Amino acid sequence: MTDQTSQDVLNDFAHRPLMLSVDDNLRQAMLRCIDQHLVELPFPGNGDTLGRWQVLAKIAGIDLGLLKLFEGHTDAAAILEEEGVSHLLAAGIWGVWASEPPDARVRITAGDQEEVRLHGRKAWCSGALQIDHALVTVWDVNDQPQLVTVKLDQPGIRRGEEGWQAVGMAATASVDVYFDDAVGQCVGTRGEYLRRPGFWQGGAGIAAAWYGAAQALAESLRSRAGRNDPHADAHLGAVDAALFGAASALRECAAWIDAYPFDNAQLAVQRVRAQVESAVEVVIHHVGRALGAGPYCRDPHFARLMADLPVFIRQSHAERDLAGLGRLVAGLPSGEWEL
Length: 339
Known about the structure:
alpha+beta, seven-stranded mixed beta sheet, 51% helix
């Protein structure tokens, strides 16, 4: 074997695709959550938004793959409740697929105000290999968005297994799903999905999940700190300050949503998402430096969270989201930041 041939072989190996398969253990864990009624959370804005987020944070600290299914299912239930069609929540695991990259759209090709036919490719379909039903954003002939429910085991739906190459969150790979004359049932009116109060309220629930995973990592550090190691203590102090600020922001946001359940929560939610994302980055940095390689290599819970969380938190759009927050803040009167 020549040197160039060896290099080619190794390059091929390095770029081999991730082999995806359905994680039956993950699906069974989610079905158990449903059977045990753990998914029956308070709805956002109904007086116990914080209680809802506390459950999401707890599940995230256990396993982010499970949280991805859990949050999608409970978000679908909240949306159907908000739209007054909770009776459509059929048995099984639900998800919400609302990503809209410009090169992947599902369109309505026929139908009426209730049942429609769908054609196209939907990208970033979280949990596609495990769930049974999805709420999907699609587009009509006038380029107006419409939310539909879709049963996934029908003819005309194919779930792809290519495209996802992240090791983190691999169990709930966000693969593409292809629609070819599949049937969907309309939920709400055209354009209503983005206008409803629950859209931003749900976005804050994701931040609570980020927080829960970071909190679990921080507990790994706290369990090993306090052993006359000033460096570990300093790392723990930095982690505590970050988590305390993020938790305070989440509590305040939850209280605001409960006080103003029908108002636009965009500003409150974008603020808390930015706060929590920053805290998560602090936690990942300090926990990793404090603990070294040991838990990465020997603690499966820790290692899985450390692999999954950097991928999961990219549901934030980083500086793009910060720019959106900045535009909102620029229009506020002076004195907004006073104590």
